[in-house]
Write a structure and sequence with these properties.
This protein has 264 residues and is of the alpha/beta class. The protein contains 9 helices and 15 strands. 36% of the residues lie in helices and 25% in strands. A 7-stranded parallel sheet has the order 6-5-4-9-12-14-15, with helices on both faces. Strands 1-3-2 form a 3-stranded antiparallel sheet. Strands 10-11-13 form a 3-stranded antiparallel sheet, covered by helices on one side.
Amino acid sequence: MKPMNQDERLKGIIGYLKENGKIRLEQVCELYQVSRDSARRDLVKLEEARLIVRTRGGAILSSPNLSTKPYEERLENKEIKQRIGKAAAALIQDGETLFLNASTTVQAAVEACAAKDIYMTAVTNSIDAAAVLGKRPNGKVHLLGGQYNAWHRSVTGSQTIAMIREFRVQTLLLGACAITPDGLSSPQLEETYVKREMIVKADRVIVLADSGKYQQPFLHHVCGLDKIDVLITDAEPPAAVRELLDRYEVEIIIANEGENDDGN
């Protein structure tokens, strides 16, 4: 049997926990043929992603309200994300400087921007965003340093924050995990720090969020709705959210089906 890489083991551990509720360190070793040190590192990484809670000798699943799906699973609703991404790309002008956080919806905007014949300078903590934009001849990409999170395909940490502070950009394309009247929130503390710093260092904040993000808040507060300049979504926000967005004069763009399609 071919040994699993860490990404495969992490998915396997989460699958096991969903079926059994808990897992012991020895079971991780037996199931995936790894040492105790490797098994422990796997559990630490999952806990850092707020997907599990480590216990004495093992782990249990985190509360559903405190975690997000792995990056690949969050690629669902692709058609909606592409509509939102195209609407965001339409706002980006030739020569613009951008922050891009690690988000599947922001990634859709990155792909739409890459198809435009314009010069862009992007600063990002997303491995995938850097890979797409790095293929373009007309632009620059600054991939931030930091600790790599395979679950979210991004880098975070003190080094990331320090590097963000070296830049000042015109626009931030920001993915949202949850939007409520209290603002934006995230299940991951390290990613929250990255988002907060990017907001501070951007002249314009464009939030990209499908209608599934109007939900109960996550543990970590990112910012209030007053920090947003533009919200691009696929459906009308809930009344309580809409009222505050109007109060703060946030521009709301509804990416309806067909509006951003190419062609006649």
